[in-house]
Amino acid sequence: xxxxxxxxxxxxxxxxxxxxxxxxxxxxxxxxxxxxxxxxxxxxxxxxxxxxxxxxxxxxxxxxxxxxxxxxxxxxxxxxxxxxxxxxxxxxxxxxxxxxxxxxxxxxxxxxxxxxxxxxxxxxxxxxxxxxxxxxxxxxxxxxxxxxxxxxxxxxxxxxxxxxxxxxxxxxxxxxxxxxxx
Length: 182
Known about the structure:
Elements lengths: L3 H70 L2 E5 L10 H15 L8 E8 L2 E11 L5 H4 L5 H10 L13 E10 L1
Antiparallel strand pairs: 1-4, 2-3, 3-4
């Protein structure tokens, strides 16, 4: 009988673990799609109009991309940061972002930094996933220490409480955050 309990537990747990693994793969794909789509839009904007055009992408297109992905996948999708421009982190995200900074400081490649957990929300299991966003040299046009005055003026007008400045290349600027029901 003692042997049956672990087997029965394993049989009951297997579908949940499979759902979690599938949802984790999906969350990774969502973060990749968000990042790829946003990067493409930002590259087009930078070529067409420089940082001022890129600011418009982050201000209007990035939230639309997040909203479209949320609807497409039945998940809550957004970007956040310890130094947010638009979306402050929730408490759980603050802890994850802090650990991301610690991991990067210890030499972990920002491209590999991610987190996931399963939590209960409204009585149902949900996967929470975060993927770090690194700061590339081009990002410094709007997030660096020496932002051009006209760029700074536009940022100030759109984001009066902006904290997303003063970054250096290679630092973590924030993360993609995805919460989805299992």
